[in-house]
Write a structure and sequence with these properties.
Rossmann fold; 451 residues; alpha+beta; elongated; eight-stranded mixed sheet; 17 helices; five-stranded mixed sheet; BirA Bifunctional Protein, domain 2; homodimer; 41% helix
């Protein structure tokens, strides 16, 4: 038979079991945290009608999308979870209760040029809250709490949720009579971290056609920093000159007002006037999240408030607020930076039960008893030498081996070997279960370990 | 703006939130059960190189597969989880510990003609145990225990795991010098349930060219029924005439010998000589699982032992045993039959916290306190009339509403309303958490409710 060389396509993540175990932990934390805030799990097809996915059009999307014919159908793979959500809400509008809160942790597809750390298939972990016509600002205020819980759940402390409001920016540029140029200006200002204020000023004047006074005024505005109270106080100085600005400031105050009640420490939250989120889509609060020790990663959780989720599919205005975590890229970067906790058990089982007699019955019953105590147990039935069995346990990384020979069976006990320390104890099945569970509990650290 | 009518492609399941909640429960039971037997979670790409997916070729697969070009690449969507597993094991062979046990619950794609209850995108929930050259029979014996735990986990009692061994069938047809015709014979015998013994006999004689004696001998063989002990005893009567048969009988005995130790009641397990599993792929134990009250559904969990997982990709022989649950179809059928437990909470939150004051701070803090007790809480901030808030709570199906007005805040309490009974209690936050958790625990029935 001809052999075809196996390979996985480039740009597609495929993890070995120990790494996958870490990824599964992160997904479980995401699911639990999102669910704890009352978001419903949602699952939509990977394949949709291409016309529907591409309703908005736009250059990059059209180029990157996986689109193909099957029979007479013009099909495409989803490139994000927002467009399928818009379709879903438009389609099931009458059956949903609004505000409609959903989370979705699913794969999306973008045929980008392959490069290190860029994926063509990747998970997004999204939440959105969709209102029917209106949506209270409290929803926007709640988002930082959810971001905070997710990253604390991963084990991180040194991260910052950076928040701004598009109405403040739009209002500010309107005050300066620069609304028409605001898109170009925001794209330029967005480069501040990378190229510095001097170069931003040059581009604002040369490319955007601003006067030096205007450029200075903008740089002064985005240079407003300090505690949240200080930034808000500085913004008050601009109030009363533009309605949109004032509305944005009121929203920003509402979002920051209840951080303590939501349990978000000030250290993990900052009003940051440089955050714009390029898309026209956003109309209110916008969010980015950075790891303080790894600013080079960029934002690991972004999103914002929008006014019209599903305008391509339905007349009704559906405002919402949502955030997205690019989970595959986040995982890749965390792994590359060595931030995944190597101490966490990565084996598929907590205990490997090794029958040492010809008759496997007692080992089977023991394995079942340990399982019913909540232990993940693999029964090892291969006819190998003891040394080979131990080598297997070590390669698997299983923390405990449980040996059951004639002696143990006669005594109603089993021998529990701690594979890390080498300690071996003869215990009853109930004692063995308690011993293993205690070891597992002690070994239950965070997924991400800050250095 | 032009409106594009939203739709979901036919053959693609997209559930409303309450139904999705049931599906999520089933997935969690599958993940936990598979993990408890020491299977590692695996995730492989949806898109693979088409040449690799189609290495085996074969008519139906080639017709149904979603295959397309992107740039110079010939791509396809996986049509099962076994071929990607074969690729994965061949590719990562040196990094894996064997036996390698993995589970995967993922979507697969088949462009079948759309018809009721047939899906083009559907979940499979698979486990496989792969050996490196050898694999002990104990692994085949363990599979019924896992199937049993999964379906009991779903809440079912009235199901039967039906087991046979391909070596017994192959050995039997070899004894009868009918090996060459065994494929045709097994396909005919497989129709026994549908068309009856008389018609099977006619086809065996007319189409397969068997003598009446041969046909009678086959019908006599597959008519062997009774308790497992009775069937095994009857099979002993054929022993000693063919090596393959004897080996199969020894395997079947080993698989049935430890059922009690594995915790599988005899009522849920039957040796059934009519089970053949059409594929040439299987070489030993084969499994099917039927719901006793719904035989029309067919097998809801099937699989078996094979000798060569990845022969298309690697020279090394990788034997294994695996089973697959067609989860999307199972869910569809259970729902259609009205077997999904309607009593289970289907709301995305256990409690809806309603601030009744202008200042949301106390309600936010209360919601966070309930969440940290393990309750899924939605905070409702919309400015609506009380009646509308209650209508929302009812539409969402949330079991508890928690009201927080001036009076409650002054007393350090909150009003917890049971949305089913209408009972309303004024409780401290800690009492409220305990009250809601107790209600949730009482409301935690099985996913599937037998009638």
């Amino acid at each position: 038979m001809d052999i075809i060389k196996p390979r996985t396509l480039s740009g597609f993540m495929e993890l070995l079991p120990a790494k996958q175990a870490q990824m599964e932990r992160m997904m479980e934390i995401l699911r639990k945290t999102y669910a704890s805030y009352g978001f419903a799990a949602l699952d939509t097809p990977v394949i949709e009608d291409a016309q529907i996915l591409l309703a908005k059009g736009g250059g990059e999307t059209e180029k990157q999308i996986y689109r193909f014919q099957k029979g007479d159908s013009d099909l495409a793979l989803r490139f994000d979870l927002t467009v399928p959500l818009a379709k879903y809400v438009a389609l099931h509008c009458n059956e949903l209760a609004f505000p409609f809160r959903r989370y979705q942790i699913s794969k999306v597809y973008r045929g980008e040029r392959a490069q290190r750390g860029r994926f063509r298939e990747f998970y997004q972990a999204d939440i959105d809250i969709i209102g029917d016509g209106k949506l209270d600002i409290l929803n926007e205020a709640e988002i930082p709490a959810i971001i905070y819980k997710v990253f604390r759940g991963f084990g991180l402390e040194r991260f910052q949720i950076r928040v701004n409001n598009r109405k403040i920016l739009n209002g500010f540029y309107a005050m300066m009579e620069l609304s028409e140029k605001s898109g170009d200006i925001m794209r330029t200002v967005d480069k501040l971290d990378k190229i510095g204020a001097e170069k931003v000023k040059v581009i604002l004047m040369d490319d955007c056609g601003l006067s030096e006074t205007q450029a200075d005024e903008i740089l002064k505005f985005i240079a407003i920093t300090g505690t949240n109270a200080e930034v808000l106080a500085a913004l008050e100085g601009y109030a009363g000159r533009n309605e949109i600005f004032d509305l944005g400031l009121a929203e920003l105050k509402a979002v920051t007002a209840n951080l303590a009640a939501f349990g978000v420490p000030e250290a993990n939250f900052a009003v940051d006037l440089t955050i714009a989120r390029g898309l026209d889509y956003y109309t209110g609060t916008v969010y980015e999240t950075t790891l303080l020790d790894h600013p080079e990663i960029g934002s690991v959780c972004s999103g914002g408030r929008y006014d019209n989720l599903a305008g391509y599919y339905i007349e009704k205005a559906l405002p919402g607020v949502g955030i997205s975590i690019g989970l595959t890229r986040l995982f890749y970067v965390l792994d590359e930076q060595g931030l995944l906790n190597p101490e966490l058990p990565s084996a598929p089982a907590d205990a490997l039960v090794l029958p040492m007699t010809a008759e496997p019955g007692p080992a089977i019953a023991l394995a079942e008893e340990l399982r019913s105590a909540g232990i993940r147990v693999q029964l090892y039935g291969e006819q190998k030498k003891f040394k080979q069995k131990m080598a297997y346990a070590n390669k698997l990384g299983v923390p405990y081996a449980v040996l059951l020979g004639e002696d143990e069976i006669a005594e109603g006990k089993c021998s529990v070997k701690n594979m890390t320390t080498g300690e071996q104890l003869k215990l009853t099945p109930a004692e063995a279960a308690a011993h293993i569970l205690a070891g597992m509990a002690a070994n239950n650290g965070p997924v991400i370990l800050e250095k």
